[in-house]
Design brief:
about 325 residues, mainly alpha, 10 helices
Length: about 325
């Protein structure tokens, strides 16, 4: 690590990552496990995108949003997991300053888009169930594109705000990050300069970027179940559960593991429990999403069967 002293502030060229708290004798096992999980995340989500793109029956608002959620999940995991896997095979676990700031930027960006897309998907289900006669009008192609575009643009602006505030912060001699990636709250705790502005912006902005979408999502499902209970029937109940169950499970996993890290974490810089929760929402949840949607979704399973049949047909023709 190289550094220079200027105006009593330390300018760092790199940070040291402690990585996952795994005993050396178990490193190989966990490396294999996380590599398989990451490959499953990438391949599973890319398969979802491919099926939605190729099958015209899936060219609906719900699957349009799902394809962008799958893209976001791949991107979200790719921000941290490849670097984590490299560090598990390396002795000197360092990350350049610019690389650390990039991790913060893209982590916030893709995480923000994930939250907004889950909210948009809840709104889509609300319109489909509570206002079915007006669904085609409300959720037109232009509206869907606008909602997705707004999610990506807002996410990028939000991450840019926090990254610009972070680069003005100076760090002390201790540049060891007790985590496996550069996380904004951890970096702010490591700083030796005044970070009150960063903390206030983070506190206020999180209320808008996280709590508002969460309340909107919960509100959408309250309206959905209120509508269902007005005219209760077993058939309607199971139809709604089939339509919304996958999304509810994904929302619960994402918000549940995220809350464990950011709202119920220990006061220390980063505990083993917090790191384990981070692994859950950055590796496990994006990996499970394709399986959750495909196993509980008849349309996705039919599209997969058709895709496999076409691949077999093409392969047999090529062999002739």
């Amino acid at each position: 690590m190289s550094s220079m002293q200027r105006d009593n502030k330390t300018t760092v060229s790199e940070f040291l990552l402690l990585g996952l708290p795994i005993p050396p004798e178990h490193q190989a096992l966990f490396f294999t496990l996380f590599l398989v999980m990451y490959l499953a995340t990438v391949l599973g989500n890319l398969l979802i995108i491919l099926l939605i793109r190729k099958d015209s029956r899936l060219h609906t608002p719900m699957y349009f949003f799902l394809s962008h959620l799958a893209l976001t999940d791949v991107s979200f995991s790719s921000v941290t997991v490849p670097k984590m896997l490299m560090d598990m095979q390396s002795i000197h676990k360092s990350i350049p300053y610019a690389g650390c700031m990039s991790q913060v930027y893209f982590f916030i960006w893709f995480g923000s888009v994930d939250i907004l897309l889950l909210t948009v998907m809840a709104y889509d289900r609300y319109v489909a169930i509570c206002q079915p006669l007006h669904y085609a009008t409300i959720m037109g192609q232009e509206k869907c594109v606008s909602l997705v575009s707004a999610s990506w643009v807002y996410g990028s602006l939000r991450s840019l705000l926090h990254t610009l505030l972070l680069v003005r912060v100076s760090f002390c001699d201790d540049i060891t990050i007790r985590h496996f990636f550069c996380e904004l709250p951890v970096l702010l705790k490591m700083s030796c300069s005044d970070v009150s502005l960063n903390e206030w912006v983070l506190f206020i902005e999180v209320g808008v970027a996280v709590f508002l979408p969460f309340i909107t999502t919960v509100g959408s499902y309250i309206r959905i179940w209120a509508t269902v209970l007005k005219n209760p029937s077993a058939k309607r109940f199971f139809k709604v559960l089939s339509t919304c169950g996958s999304h509810l499970l994904v929302v619960s996993l994402f918000y549940g593991t995220g809350a464990e890290v950011y709202f119920f974490s220990s006061p220390s810089i980063s505990s083993n429990k917090d790191i384990a929760a981070s692994v859950m929402y950055m590796i496990v949840t994006p990996m499970l999403n394709p399986f959750i949607y495909s196993l509980r979704n008849r349309d996705i399973k039919q599209a997969l069967k058709l895709f496999v049949t076409r691949m077999k047909y093409c392969s047999s023709n090529n062999l002739i």
